[in-house]
Write a structure and sequence with these properties.
This protein has 11 helices and 8 strands. The chain has about 240 residues and is of the alpha/beta class. The strands form 2 sheets. The protein has a 6-stranded parallel β-sheet, with helices on both faces. It has a two-stranded antiparallel ribbon with strand order 2-3. The radius of gyration is 18 Å and the shape is globular. The model has no long low-confidence stretch (mean pLDDT about 95).
Length: about 240
């Protein structure tokens, strides 16, 4: 039986990129390595929470850098961060925002993309929240290659709203059964499944820190610990 799959969509940060290393490096030197890691993980979650609220409140898509500045200010104002807030000067804050634009790929990603594109002849896309400028900077810094980059800024809506996925399918002239969404974020995959796409969850220790992984495993068509077998798994869906 010939696979109906024509395109594989990827979430970007977390799924394909190690954002954590970039952010930890940009944090104040006075913080311990443990403090930096915890801060980065919680800050990232605060960003997700902010986007969820914007979707619920039907607010328009916001520039990624502006969101990061706003989320950082709010995060530093929380009780548990007040004792380190003084370490975050304007320069440090701007360095932190800039760090999101320069990330390395996880070691398994480049080869996975090569197999999908060259061996399987599938189209591969980035489908991620954020700005187009951000995505352009990230593909350069990570050395990755996709057929197209779809940002929430470009689409005018955040994942996991169904309009985000439907908008991409309309532009690509593809049907939901011809597309697979790959992500390290359960919410992204719920949105994809809601419009009829197949879903593959790739576990990354940096993301979905509040999710029950056993539940995530049951909710998706495939659950992987890395991307080494991604092409064969997708072919079997």
């Amino acid at each position: 039986m010939v696979s109906p799959i024509k395109a594989v969509w990827f979430d970007f940060m977390g799924t394909c990129l190690d954002w954590h290393s970039s952010i930890v490096t940009a944090l104040p030197l006075a913080l311990s390595e443990s403090q930096k890691s915890t801060f980065a993980l919680e800050l990232r979650q605060a960003y997700f929470d902010s986007n969820t609220r914007r979707i619920a409140e039907k607010k328009p898509v916001e520039d990624f850098d502006d969101t990061q500045r706003r989320v950082l200010d709010s995060f530093l104002g929380e009780t548990e961060n007040l004792d380190i807030k003084h370490l975050f000067s304007t320069d440090v804050r701007e360095r932190l925002v800039a760090a999101w634009h320069h990330q390395k790929a996880w070691p398994d990603v480049a080869e996975a993309l090569r197999k999908l594109k060259s061996d399987r002849r599938w189209e591969v896309y980035v489908h991620a929240n954020g700005s187009t400028r951000l995505q352009l900077d990230l593909v350069k810094s990570a050395g990755l290659h996709y057929d197209m980059l779809f940002s929430s800024e470009l689409l005018g809506v955040y994942k996991p709203a169904p309009e985000s996925y439907e908008g991409v399918m309309k532009l690509l002239k593809l049907k939901s059964e011809e597309c697979v969404m790959v992500a390290a974020h359960a919410s992204d995959l719920k949105g994809a499944k809601a419009v009829g796409m197949k879903t593959v969850y790739v576990y990354r220790w940096t993301d979905d820190i509040r999710e029950d992984q056993e539940v995530v495993r049951r909710e998706n068509d495939a659950y992987l610990s890395d991307m080494h077998s991604l092409d064969s798994v997708i072919a079997s869906l």
